[in-house]
């Protein structure tokens, strides 16, 4: 006898990256800002004071779409992509994790 088990709804796997960009000499900051407002993978961005001009957080349902979004930052956003950091998983900064680890040590 076989028992049908309904599929478990798993949360959608998101692929995310932080991308450090420098604007090209011919690209005003307003152009990057307008581009990011229309890019569906762009979920957050910050102007920063460093060798870079901005850091952009991208999120996509597949690695292919994420890679395309990074390439489009250069091609359509007028940015030189300096570094791309893939986000693997968040760190748990809650006190409960530290307490649990200390109790098992």
Automatic annotation (TrEMBL):
Protein name, as recorded: AsnC family protein
């Amino acid at each position: 006898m076989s028992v049908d088990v309904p599929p478990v709804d798993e949360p959608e796997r998101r692929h995310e990256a932080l991308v450090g960009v420098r604007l090209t000499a011919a690209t005003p900051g307003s152009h990057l800002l307008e581009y990011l407002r229309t890019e569906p993978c762009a979920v957050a961005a910050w102007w920063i004071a460093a060798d870079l001009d901005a850091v952009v957080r991208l999120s996509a349902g597949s690695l292919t779409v994420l890679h395309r979004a990074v390439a489009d930052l250069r091609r359509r956003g007028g940015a030189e992509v300096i570094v791309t950091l893939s986000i693997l998983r968040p760190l748990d900064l809650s006190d409960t994790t530290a307490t649990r680890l200390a109790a098992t040590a």
